[in-house]
Amino acid sequence: MASEAFLESFPVLASEHPQYLRQEQEEEGRKRYEAQKLERMETKWRNGDIVQPILNPEPNTVSYSQSSLIHLVGPSDCTLHGFVHGGVTMKLMDEVAGIVAARHCKTNIVTASVDAINFHDKIRKGCVITISGRMTFTSNKSMEIEVLVDADPVVDNSQKRYRAASAFFTYVSLNQEGKPLPVPQLVPETEDEKKRFEEGKGRYLQMKAKRQGHTEPQP
Fold first, then answer.
1. CB within 8 Å of 7: residues ≥ 6 apart
2. Does the pLDDT of residue 13 top 50, yes or no?
3. Is the dihedral of CA 168, 173, 179, 184 positive or negative?
4. How far is 94 from 111, CA to CA, in rounded Å?
5. Which of helix, strand or coil describes residue 141?
6. Is 68 exposed, middle or buried (0-12, 13-18, 19+ CB in 10 A)?
C-alpha cells in the first residue's frame, strides 16, 4: 500500500508512529469492506432472476448468446467438509462466460477481468448446479457477461433451489495475431435487458476511469 511504501522509506518515522500506520491500514480495509458490501447488495435483487431459453433468437441479442451448464457436484469438487471448492465454481463460471462471448462475436476470445465474484451461499456435495451466463453490455472492444450459479439440493427435500454465486466477466475479442477486434454491439430487447445494459455501461466507465487514474504519473 502507498502508506506502507512511504513509511518504509523512512524507517525512523515508521518505528516512531506504528499507531499511524495501523490506523491507515484499518481505514483502507474498512473502505474495501464497504465497497464489497455495496456490490453484494447491488446483486441481491437478482437472486430470483433466471436465464430463460428463447427459440430462434436474433443475432447480437442477449438470447442469441446466452448459455447454461448443468453440473452434478461430486466428491472431487469438494473440500473435506463436503462443500464445493471456490476454484471449481470459478472455473465453471469462466467456462460459461467464455461460451457466451464466443457465441456473440464468433472469434477467438480471452478473459480480460472478473468483477467481484460473490459467493452468496455454500454448495454441498450432491447438489445439481446450473451455471447460466448472458451478455449484459458491449463496448467497442469488450463484452461484459453476467454469470449466475443456482444450486438445487436434489437429495434434500427440505431445501429449495437457491442462488449460490454471481459475477461479471469481461472478455475481449482477438484476431489471429492477438490484436483486439471490434465487438458486435449488443441489441437489448426487453426493459430488463436495457436496464442491465445501462448498469454494465456504468461499471465499464467506472473501471475505465480507475485504469486511467492508475496510469497517470505520480507526483
1. 13, 14, 17, 21
2. no
3. negative
4. 8
5. coil
6. middle
Give me Rg for the CA atoms of the chain. 21
* pTM score, whole prediction: 0.74
- What's the rounded Cα separation, in Å, for the pair 195 and 177? 35
Q: In b/e form, how buried is each residue of 26-63, taking b as 16+ CB within 10 angstroms?
A: eeeeeeeeeeeeebeeebeeeeebebeeeeeeeebbbb
- Higher-confidence position of 203 and 25: 203
Query: Cβ distance 167 to 200 under 8 Å?
Result: no
Grid cell for residue 77: 469438487
Report how far residue 101's alpha carbon sits from residue 169's, in angstroms, rounded to the nearest whole number: 10
Give CB contacts under 8 A, 24+ apart, made by 88-91.
89/117, 89/119, 89/123, 89/129, 89/149, 89/164, 89/165, 90/114, 90/117
